[in-house]
Amino acid sequence: MDQNQIEVAAQIIKSGGLVAFPTETVYGLGANALNPFAVAKIFELKERPTFDPLIVHIADFDDLYILADNPSESVIALAKKFWPGPLTIVLPKSKLVPDIVTSGLQTVGIRMPNNEIALQLIEKSGCPIAAPSANKFGKLSPVNAKHVKKQLPNVDYILDGGDTAVGIESTIISVEGNVCKMLRPGIINAEDIEKALPDGFIFSNEKTEKMVAPGLLKSHYSPAKPLYIFNGDEIQIPKSSGVILHGENVFIENAQKTVYTSKNYNHHEIAANLFSALHAMEEDESVKQIFIEAVNCVGLGIAIMDRINKAAYQYQSKQ
Ligand code: TXA
Ligand code: MG
To answer: Would you say 18 and 131 are in contact if contact means Cβ atoms under 8 Å apart?
Structure first.
């Protein structure tokens, strides 16, 4: 990428504007995390309820000391094992983090993305960058610049870094005292976290019914047309259906459009191509409803099914 573009984007962040930028997971919609007026514009453009807190992106480990309230050496060591990378750590926040970033919570989600453009943007802006995914609230996550433009045509600037590598949002954990909880599954899974936890830490992977974060709502990431999940190889589909498959075990006749996320059920490929496949179905006017194959709920399959279930949630009972 041309350095000038990152310079221009950094100037926009510095002057309180919004920049969409690539990370290794999905595109983010960024603003200076320490400027509440700039952060407010994120909620406005995304039409995001202000009770849904934002993740703060950093490029330097020292920023952990600025944003978190007295982080322990063990927390820093844990962060160093995964950063830069697709893990968000929710920690007690420092006074410097504006309330609007955390929706009034006393904790803040922090991550160091593993993407050169994102890291340079943060460095050149000279501030941590608050960024949710660069989509309208509840809609499909963007994994390229075209997806961002489709949903947020009025964003001040888009840094186009091509397709993202991981394709689904970061894993989110919270750490309070010596208790670590899984809040959102991602490519870094529960076993990876458990293995990396310092001695004396307790790990909880229990599902809590309490809404800890709106990203944990049952309905999210939805395409603009009905989406149904199917298991196995025998399904009847209505006319004008789009079908998303993850391998060649299944063949469905009469599909209006078929998109493969992978040829052989490779979970990394499925994650990388999942949102693009859903965007392609959303954009094709001849597709009236979408059918998506389920994947095995093991390893990365847990995070993939989390996104698929949330995307299809509002249509499940109507099938
Ligand atoms: O991969 C990602 O995490 C992407 C890229 C851009 O970094 N970002 C992303 O942000 O997915 P967003 O806003 O779409 O999802 C972040 C989730 C939300 O569900 C939010 O509620 C939760 O993180 N979250 C943020 N701060 C939190 C906090 N202090 N406590 C609990 N949940 C928090
Ligand atoms: Mg999101």
So the answer is: no
Query: Which positions ≥6 away from 95 have C-beta within 8 Å?
Result: none
The answer to whether the CB of 53 is under 6 A from ligand 1 is: yes
CB of 22 closer than 6 A to ligand 1? no
Q: Tens digits of per-residue pLDDT, 173-218?
A: 999 999 999 999 999 999 999 999 988 899 988 765 554 555 567 7
Distances 240 to 18, 166, 314 between C-alpha atoms, Å: 38, 30, 20
Confidence of residue 319 (pLDDT cuts 50, 70, 90): very low
Ligand 1 within 6 A of CB of 105: yes
Q: Which atom of ligand 1 is nearest to the CA of 29?
A: 6
Put simply, whether the predicted model's pTM sits higher than 0.85 gets the answer yes
Residue 43's pLDDT is 98
Across all residues in the chain, what is the average pLDDT? 94
Distance 136 CA to ligand 1 centre (A): 14
CA distance 7 to 3: 6
DSSP sequence for 214-245: GGGSSS-SB-SS-EEEE-SS-----TTEEEEE
Rounded percentage of the chain residues whose pLDDT exceeds 70: 96
Q: What is the DSSP letter of 132?
A: -
**Which residue among 18, 141, 169 is best mutated to probe the pocket of ligand 1, counting the most ligand atoms within 8 A of its Cβ?**
169
Q: Are 251 and 299 within 8 A, CB to CB?
A: no
Ligand 1 pocket, residue 115 CB under 6 Å: no
> Alpha-carbon distance 237 to 256, whole Å?
10
Nearest-5° Cα angle at 269, 265 to 271: 100
Whether residue 169 has its Cβ less than 6 Å from ligand 1: yes
CA distance 261 to 277: 7
Q: Say what the pLDDT of residue 235 is.
A: 84
- pLDDT at position 94: 98
